[in-house]
């Protein structure tokens, strides 16, 4: 080992050390969006900044695993060729290339954030494609105007190469690779990929983490601090946004036909801080209700929802409604009034990091306490993260129920027991409250 080499040994240790170093650089480059745009995050406390900076490592690990998958594979494959000098040269170049590109995306967003107020998503490439001539003609000016991020990116790239050149595979081990090494390395190969699959999923929860999961830790305006740009681009790849449609000549023409803006009338009276409970039923139809079908069976239809029917007799009931074709569409539609207009659910779309309002946010302005109840395993369909984005104070799911004697083994807690749990919590809620 030369005096210039920090480590020379097996591919596994080289893999670990290099990935840790790449993770540190990715972590620091992610946080630069805060320091370059501190005015945009002036309301954040030091404690919360530290908290979401650390929690962002969950998303950094995803990016690290995805962009380095070839490097992971080639360095842990159970074959003696991985100690070949030419093989490692190609492997090293691949490592430097993919990680330098990942870092570059973070540095670009340090400035691009000022124009969008969010991390870049895959649609930025559509913008570049549609305006390629203008983008490339302005690129030299942007680099000159915002030279510091460009210089820092070059420094980070050089640091990556410099550190990597001091952490080397010992090529002499190729001569010591015996039959027993194949067996041991096969076991290591399997274990490594199990660990990296877990890291790439963001944990052991039912579904891999998505952008919406940042809502578990902070509000949308701080998403750019907790998320990294390679992550948001990867996660929105294949998730296309809305295409602008033009059916009218101008907004005045449209407003004569329909306007979504409805102004309240003074006749509505003074706001009353009544408790609000919204009950959402999945896969239910109006045919189940006797109240909604008064003419069925010659007016003798009993239906299957006697309790809900009794509530509807004393409620404002809408007979024409739609809230999406999927469960993931329904919750944002009901809570935030976001219709299902895309091929993929809003919670998986590039728009999920946008600032939104909701009935929870509006009622919190009236000093309501707010809670969302869902008997499924926490994290299912991103509801827990979304309700935090939407402004709910509390979320109650399977883990808050805290009794798996009533867990069905797959989806969540049985309805009867969870509804009783919900009723108990409603009785304990501070008034006025909103519960969904």
Describe what this molecule looks like in 3D.
The strands form two sheets. This protein has a four-stranded parallel beta sheet. It has 18 helices and six strands. It folds into two domains: 7-236, no CATH class; 269-435, Alkaline Phosphatase, subunit A (3-Layer(aba) Sandwich), CATH 3.40.720. By secondary structure, it is mainly alpha-helical.
- In whole angstroms, how far apart are the ends? 65 Å
If you average the pLDDT, what whole number results? 86
Order of strands, widest sheet: 3-6-4-5
Helix/strand-derived category reads mainly alpha
Shape: globular
Radius of gyration: 27 Å
H/I helix tally:
18
Q: Can you tell me the residue ranges where pLDDT is under 50 for at least 5 consecutive residues?
A: none
Biggest sheet layout:
4 strands, parallel
The tally of domains stands at 2
What is the string of SSEs from the N terminus onward? Answer: EHHHHHHHHEHHHHEHHHEHEHHE
What amount of the residues lies in strands? under 5%
Count the beta strands.
Answer: 6
> What percent of residues adopt helix (DSSP H or I)?
40-55%
